[in-house]
Amino acid sequence: MLKEERQQTILSEVALHNRVLLTDIAEILEVSIDTVRRDVKELDAENKLRKVHGGAISLGFTNQSKRNTNTYALEQKIVIAEKASHLLRNGGVIFIDGGTTCLELARLIPDDLQLTCFTLSLPVAFELLNKPNVEVIFIGGKISKDAQISMGANAVHNLSEINVDYSFIGTGYVDVLHGLTEFDWDIVQVKKAVIKAAKKMVLLCISEKLNSQHRFKTCDINAINTMVTELAPENNLLNLFRNHDIRLL
Description:
The chain is an alpha/beta fold. It has helices at 3-17, 22-29, 33-45, 74-85, 100-108, 122-128, 152-159, 185-196, 239-242; strands spanning 19-21, 50-52, 55-57, 92-96, 115-119, 134-138, 142-143, 150-151, 164-169, 173-175, 179-182, 198-204, 216-219, 226-228, 247-248. The chain has 2 domains: 3-57, Arc Repressor Mutant, subunit A, CATH 1.10.10.10; 74-248, Translation initiation factor eif-2b, domain 2 (Rossmann fold), CATH 3.40.50.10470.
């Protein structure tokens, strides 16, 4: 495989999943980790992604303020956020996860809607501070510089003491048989705590992530009450999910 093809594959994986591991890319490309590391270093120098320890993250994943035009599939994510926003109710208590799609949801909360919103995402928290009628409660813990979320035992403990109406979460990978999965064990532990803290779970997920899986399991697919994609609910790509007790939006 030519270097240009390798690097395009790397950019595609980073764009879709926001964060990737060098080991995973090396396996996909069937090349050495050193080769992938060199490619990632070059792409970082060209300002096409950001190199981090053991992997890479997308440029759209690193923005904390204004909408970043580097965000992958931004139009689809805005569609998802618009659909999810219709679930919000005045006086509700919700949790909003980290990630670019959840950030779009935070941006779309109407200024006149009264909410109490928990989050462990710094970008989401900053966005919510612009909403005059949203009470923002940040779940503290050790801050991941890559994901820009709080993690660890303190975050898990704080989540164990709340009970929200809806948790709006993202995922790296989702599959009917394997449920929601991630490559990061620490993030999985936090997401498990988020699930326990919610009366209802709402998954925000672009369709490209459907039928994919990784090594660490967050939950079974049946733990999700509602799944929101950019697709119409009757789309054939959602047929396998339709067989489960999941509301499709």
